[in-house]
Design brief:
The structure holds two protein chains of two kinds.
Chain A (H helix, E strand, L loop, with lengths): L1 H29 L6 H19 L2 H25 L4 H24 L4 E3 L12 H4 L4 H5 L4 H19 L1 H11 L1 H6 L4 H26 L3 E3 L6 H11 L4 H21 L6 H26 L9
Antiparallel strand pairs in A: 1-2
Helix pairs in contact in A: 1-7, 1-8, 1-10, 1-11, 1-12, 2-3, 2-4, 2-10, 2-11, 3-4, 3-10, 7-8, 8-10, 11-12, 11-13, 12-13
Chain B lengths: L1 H31 L4 H13 L1 H27 L7 H18 L5 H30 L3 H23 L31 H18 L1 H11 L1 H6 L4 H28 L10 H11 L4 H25 L5 H38 L1
Helix pairs in contact in B: 1-13, 2-3, 2-12, 3-7, 3-8, 3-10, 3-11, 3-12, 4-5, 4-6, 4-10, 4-11, 5-6, 5-10, 7-8, 7-10, 7-12, 11-12, 11-13
């Protein structure tokens, strides 16, 4: 019973990370280090809330979030890929720009500071599917989740199919492994890089919607709180594979769910809240140690 | 000689062009929100520069971010992305406060020195963790340092709200530090204090480290070509750890400056993102110590003037963040162009060879 509650929470906490990771792994595989996931999620959370507030329509909100992240993806691609800027610096720019722009618009257009909550914001609630709930053990975990949770599971399959069973996915992987060779056989490398970043933008948009419209129905300044980077960690640990990235997102979500459970016990909150962050560092180290053991090349190499 | 002059002109002109471009885009945003960019930027400059008080306040605002900028520049120069200066700053700040309130009756110079050393040790040790993980296990330092930022903030919040909470304080903060640990203020009109001199001192020290010491050249070598540095027999893993620790020490110092010079106690979550500002400043200053000083002063002006702008023309301060983001965008491209030049040369050599065959 209790373990099911924790796993139910795990799935909920893992979803924004998993969505961002599933999208981000396309950039990772094509050889674009995308630290802009954080800023994209934030923009999506913001535009989603604003659109939902203005129109009351959740479909419009999702669309707005996708448009918002796509705009930032375009900026990221233009500066990073077309103009050959450093990806880390371009990504950093996206993150800081997103943070500034959301606060600026919030204050200028809506006269709010830091938080935007309003009864007019339409959120997405949990879905009850009695047939799902009847399945023993798994049922209670999967039932009563929000739509993006199910979307993330469907997307896991979709992303796997696209990456391994389509020509598009093949080219993405080929470019990541040997860009020069890909260029030599006539693959339009930059177009695929753009496409990969746009896929991460769209999935980050869904992650942002999950944060601001499913769990809370409000926007809080900097509400992504490092989740974009956690998604990046999940991709690194999962070696850029969809299933691996999902598993690590799930593990990080698990640490978060445990943290939420432990809050009710008599352990100082701060130490409990540290669990997910320390957990991620430990996992990254273990993965690094294993890689090092299996690696035959000497010394450091860049990810 | 000619090339160095050209290099200098480039180093000076490109940041200026970058900043102007960012301000132009910012102006568009201001117009869209129905305000006058001339008024807004006028208020910004006036708030930052008009009168002794404003200038002092600008220097005061620049103090922590010059230091975080230096901390960041040292690591960025080696192509190590220490994004954890924020966390290192918190650890340093707390250490400084701890030494500050634990001792009494020491000579001021001794007490301040002890606090500063404790802060630098705390920041350095905290940066040791991601340093070792990067150097020996190749753990991505961006992710690990950002995760450690959250840990540091939570940890110091806990310490200042429970373990070392000041009696009767209405907010999470430690006891006041002893008077002997105060960094003196220069005047009554501004909070500008001796921490600014410390920042200047470290600009010079960082310059010496980068230009006059072997490690400085090694930092540059690692930053420019990791494989080559490794092949040339450099112990890159060890150097990575050392670079991270130095970076963390300066981050810790930035925290000490805020505690000893401004708040005189550790206040939970006092930093409005000084560590993040440091990244912009390091990039704008091209990772050079004096570049960091100038761009640090510039951002001090923006931050100080930003509040005036918000008060007088009702253009939100977050405009500064937007400008910051835009500046980084343009800088990333500029870096790209210079790299492109390099690539062209290499390619040219290669194609020449191919044609020869």
């Amino acid at each position: 019973m209790d373990i099911q509650t924790i796993l139910h929470g795990t799935l909920r906490m893992a979803t924004p990370i998993a969505l961002a990771a599933l999208g981000g792994l396309f950039s990772h595989r094509v050889g674009v280090l995308n630290i802009a996931l954080e800023g994209m999620m934030l923009i999506a959370a913001f535009t989603g809330v604003i659109a939902s507030y203005l129109t009351g329509n959740i479909a419009v909100a999702i669309l707005a979030a996708i448009v918002g992240t796509s705009f930032f993806a375009l900026l990221f691609c233009f500066f990073g890929i077309s103009l050959k800027g450093n990806f880390i610096i371009t990504g950093l720019a996206v993150n800081i720009f997103a943070l500034g722009l959301t606060s600026f618009i919030l204050q200028m257009a809506f006269g709010r500071r830091g938080v935007f909550a309003d009864p007019d914001i339409v959120g997405l609630g949990a879905v009850d599917m009695p047939w799902l709930g009847k399945i023993p053990f798994v049922g209670t975990i999967l039932n009563q989740q929000t739509p993006m949770v199910y979307a993330s599971l469907v997307l896991l399959v979709l992303v796997w199919l696209v990456l391994y069973k389509t020509r598009f996915g093949l080219y993405i992987r080929v470019i990541g492994e040997n860009e020069e060779a890909a260029r030599a056989v006539g693959i339009k490398v930059n177009a695929y890089k753009y496409a990969a970043v746009f896929i991460s933008a769209v999935l980050s948009a869904l992650a942002g919607i999950n944060l601001s419209l499913e769990n809370l129905s409000m926007f809080v300044e900097n509400m992504t709180n490092g989740r974009g980077f956690i998604a990046l960690a999940a991709i690194f640990c999962g070696k850029g594979t969809p299933i691996g990235s999902y598993i690590f997102s799930f593990l990080f979500g698990f640490a978060d769910a445990i943290q939420m459970r432990l809050q009710s016990f008599n352990i100082p909150g701060a130490f409990v809240q540290m669990i997910p962050f320390i957990f991620i560092i430990v996992i990254l180290s273990v993965v690094g140690a294993v890689k090092r053991k299996n690696s035959t090349s000497r010394g450091l190499y860049n990810e | 000689m000619k090339t160095t002059t050209r290099k200098w002109i480039q180093a000076v002109i490109s940041p200026i062009v970058t900043v102007m471009l960012a301000f132009m885009v910012g102006a568009v945003l201001i117009v869209v929100s129905g305000k006058s960019p001339v008024e807004a930027y006028g208020a910004l400059l006036k708030g930052g520069l008009a009168g002794t008080r404003s200038i002092f306040n600008t220097l005061f605002s620049a103090t922590p971010i010059i230091l975080t900028g230096l901390a960041t520049a040292i690591s960025f120069k080696a192509n190590i992305f220490n994004m954890g200066v924020e966390g290192q700053l918190y650890m340093g700040a707390f250490a400084a406060a701890y030494v500050g309130f634990s001792f009494e009756g020491l000579y001021p110079i001794l007490h301040v020195t002890l606090c500063v050393l404790a802060a630098m040790a705390a920041g350095g040790i905290y940066a040791l963790i991601p340093g070792i993980l990067k150097g020996y296990l190749n753990v991505n330092e961006m992710v690990s340092t950002i995760m450690l930022n959250y840990v540091a903030i939570l940890f110091t919040t806990h310490l200042s709200s429970f373990t070392f909470k000041a009696k009767g304080a209405g907010f999470a903060a430690t006891e006041l530090i002893s008077h002997s640990a105060f960094l003196p203020r220069f005047s009554k009109i501004s909070q500008l204090n001796a921490a600014f001199l410390l920042a200047l001192l470290f600009v010079v020290l960082t310059f010496i480290l980068m230009r006059r010491v072997k490690l400085g050249y090694e930092i540059e070598a690692i930053g420019q070509n990791l494989e080559f540095a490794e092949a040339a027999g450099m112990n890159v893993a060890k150097k990575t750890v050392i670079i991270m620790v130095i970076s963390g020490m300066i981050g810790g110092l930035a925290g000490a400056g805020e505690v000893l010079g401004v708040h005189h106690r550790f206040i939970s979550q006092f930093s409005p993102g000084y560590g993040w500002d440091g990244m912009t400043i390091a990039l704008l200053g091209k990772n050079s110590p004096f570049g960091v000083l100038i761009s640090g002063l510039f951002f001090g002006l923006l931050k100080n003037g930003g509040s005036t702008m918000e008060l007088m023309v009702e253009v939100p301060r977050s405009l500064i963040n937007i400008l910051q983001g835009l500046i980084i965008f343009f800088l990333a491209v500029e870096l790209g162009f210079s790299r492109l030049g390099l690539w062209k040369k290499i390619r040219l050599g290669k194609t020449g060879k191919v044609e020869g065959v």
